Automatic annotation (TrEMBL):
Organism encoding this protein: Methanospirillum stamsii
Domain of life: Archaea
PANTHER family linked: IRON COMPOUNDS ABC TRANSPORTER, ATP-BINDING PROTEIN, METAL TRANSPORT SYSTEM ATP-BINDING PROTEIN TM_0124-RELATED
Coiled coil: none
Alphabetized InterPro entries for the sequence: AAA+_ATPase, ABC_transporter-like_ATP-bd, ABC_transporter-like_CS, Metal_Ion_Import_ABC, P-loop_NTPase
Lineage of the species this protein comes from: Archaea, Methanobacteriati, Methanobacteriota, Stenosarchaea group, Methanomicrobia
Name of protein: Cobalamin import ATP-binding protein BtuD
């Protein structure tokens, strides 16, 4: 279990060479035991931001701090796990072998995985409810099952923080919430810091403690998810009418985020299936 973890970006800015600025003046933070959702239209730099946090790209301005230290100085003392969108393997790896890859940073060059490495891989599969799939071929699994295995691989790396890139994008409706519920469980039981990108504001509302909205003009809004994910902010970010409604359910009130659009081609004529207009 993670004892302490904090990732913070201050005045972050990124651009490719002398080209267009992808994002600017970006400020946010996430601690262990918290989930941060990053949202915005295509082209706002969400994936680029993840690559900066993973150390693949270097930010062009501002700073990234990990546990109060500049990112480069803290790399050896912490580890950020990564769960990509559905991964397609061309090799016939078993599920257990896929998870074992998460132990790579603990295995010395030209050495074989230790007994502890194999045990950690099995324990990680158990945590995501996939222990019975250890000997299955990864490429034969369904999309939801593959996503669970990739999460187990990140857990096997003993990450202090796990970054998810659109974790539900290729999943059916039920499996989307299965993955989201697992992320909530990992936050609570493993005390992890979790960062995810998503195109679904309702998913961010469902599980996030914090949210970061990014628009195409390079502007951003960060804070507690229930404050950031407001009708005004969502409408401005996505350029469409979006409503947030409170729905009573089991002595509680749930929030639903709904796009307020109507398509005349999809309207049904109430009380008439013949295609004729209903008389008023």
């Amino acid at each position: 279990m993670v004892v302490g973890m904090n990732i913070e970006m201050k005045n972050g800015m990124f651009k490719y060479g002398t080209g267009k600025t992808i994002f600017k003046n970006l400020n946010f933070n996430v601690n262990n035991g918290e989930i941060l959702s990053i949202l915005g239209p295509n082209g706002t730099g969400k994936t680029t931001l993840l690559k900066c946090l993973l150390g693949i790209h270097q930010i062009s301005g501002g700073s990234v701090y990990i546990n109060g230290l500049v990112q480069d100085k803290e790399k050896k003392n912490c580890h950020i796990g990564y769960v990509p969108q559905i991964h397609q393997s061309v090799f016939q790896y078993t599920v257990l072998e896929m998870v074992l890859m998460g132990r790579t940073r603990f295995i010395r060059r030209f050495s074989s995985p230790s007994h502890d490495d194999w045990n950690c891989a099995r324990e990680s599969l158990e945590k995501v409810g996939m222990a019975g799939f250890a000997d299955r071929i990864f490429s034969d699994l369904s999309g939801g099952e593959k996503q669970m295995v990739l999460i187990a691989r990140a857990l096997a790396s003993q990450a202090d923080c796990i970054i998810f890139d659109e974790p539900t994008s290729a999943l059916d409706y039920r499996n989307q919430y299965h993955v989201l519920d697992l992320m909530i469980s990992l936050k609570r039981e493993e005390n992890l810091a979790i960062i995810m990108t998503t195109h679904q504001p309702e998913h961010a509302m469902y599980l996030s403690d914090k949210a970061l909205l990014m628009d195409r003009d390079g502007n951003s809004c960060f804070g507690e998810s229930d404050k950031v994910l407001s009708e005004n902010n969502l409408n401005a970010t996505y350029g469409m009418n979006i409503g947030i409604f409170s729905i009573p359910h089991n002595n509680a009130h749930l929030k639903a985020i709904i796009p307020l659009v109507s398509n005349p081609l999809h309207r049904s004529l109430s009380g008439n299936n013949s295609g004729n207009e209903v008389a008023s």
